[in-house]
Amino acid sequence: SYVNTREILDKASKEYYGVAAFNINNLEFLQAILAGAAEKKSPAIIETSEGAIKYAGMGDYFKGARIFVNMVKEFANDLDIPVALHLDHGKDFNIIMACIKAGYSSVMIDASHYDFEDNLRITKDVARIAHAAGVSVEAELGQLAGIEDNVEAAENVLVNVDQAEKFCAESEIDFFAPAIGTSHGAFKFKGEAKLDYDRLKKVKEITGKPLVLHGASSVVQEYVKIAEEHGADFGGSKGVPSDVLKETVKFGINKVNTDTDLRIAYIAGLREYLDNDSKQFDPRKYYKVAMDYTKQVVMDRIDILGSAGKI
Ligand SMILES: O=C(COP(=O)(O)O)N(O)CCCCOP(=O)(O)O
Ligand SMILES: [Ca+2]
Ligand code: NA
Ligand SMILES: [Zn+2]
Fold this sequence. Notes:
The structure is a single chain. Helix content is 49%, strand content 15%. The protein contains 13 helices and 10 strands. It has an 8-stranded parallel β-sheet with strand order 8-5-4-3-2-1-10-9, with helices on both faces. A two-stranded antiparallel ribbon has the order 6-7. Helix 2 packs across helix 13, helix 6 packs parallel to helix 7 and helix 11 packs antiparallel against helix 13. The mean pLDDT is 96. The site of calcium ion (CA) has 6 residues, from loops.
């Protein structure tokens, strides 16, 4: 069934398990994610960036938002697991409104590159409108290093715990993303993967909210190797190890944003297939291994985060 994201996350927060939020840009990733979640009897959060919405709508983001809502609802209505659709890293007010109007379960207003007061003001405005339309809201404090929707953050800016208290109390958001040392993409750490567990524990204690980990992909080396055997160059790739991920869930992370892991599994399967079958040109065949690997990563992630059977 198609549900509101906070329904999934309030339960996860109470029971201290994680639910992966998987990014999609097309039909094939959606099919692979829902197949994996259904097999694990796990709730599923599907999320799309502003870039994905523009991509699907060929530049028309109202159309893109409607395409994703209709695709997800079509599948969700026939599944026994709860499925939500979330706007990831909403920055453009028009796109946030388009998603609310199209029927997204939740939206992220990411104003974390503004100063605290502006972030709080913008977040309060979006939360008021979204809640009036029955849509739940995610917002962020701190910054992940690297490019984030064309916002360049040179360094990681970790969440300030006192600011988090005021932010969550005054903004009325439903779930909160504290930056604790991760970054987006496949090259997250130069050295050891260290996250600020102490800050995370304090934010959980003070806010009592469902919490979101951005940049949470593990960059599974099994699929990196397959991709590299078939021509990819992902040298130096490093993600959040699964034992570190489990620690963050233990300390209160509930929504675990996962995009890169699916991208790597998919390209590994596609490269492998194309190298092994020179005669094939049916997309229902040559995407198959890519979708199988992606489904496998979805199921492995669900096992790591503990959301199997939580429906
Ligand atoms: O936090 C995460 C997941 O990060 P990770 O999977 O890279 O670790 N996300 O929010 C996913 C970011 C998706 C970026 O999409 P565009 O390329 O379309 O802008
Ligand atoms: Ca941000
Ligand atoms: Na998000
Ligand atoms: Zn993110």
